[in-house]
Amino acid sequence: MEAAARAVRAWRGCGAHVLPAWPLHAPGRAAATHDFDWHGLRIAKGTWVLLDLYGTSHHPAIWGDPDVFRPERFERWQSSGMDLIPQGGGGPYSGHRCPGEQATVDLMKSALRLFATEIDYAVPPQDLSVNLRRMPALPASGMVIEQVALRGRAA
Which helix (H) or strand (E) holds 148? Predict the structure, then answer.
């Protein structure tokens, strides 16, 4: 479940708001530590910039098949604190990482366990496309489930 929870966070670009996928996440802002040029644009030291956390989590050079949900890529994953950053970079005690990250991961593991092993449900046809130009970026139909019942009990 740990690998699956981390995969959900990377795959959908999840931040502190556990389920919505945010293409740009406000806490992903920082001030430039030095002057630099980026694609012909001069960024001066101290300029506030937004980090594209969704783009970082979907960069094919980093993740390989970024749009494919593959929890196994996290089974032996060791974080540097700067490679999976849906809740900030660095450590929760010394950097800008959210101190509630482990609570988020634990909640996601509980939700995944519930949906994978403890309840039966049906997912009707719906539009699950995500418009990344809209904030929050959510599935067009929301996420509808029907006929929900505890395993072994009738709906």
Answer: strand 146-150
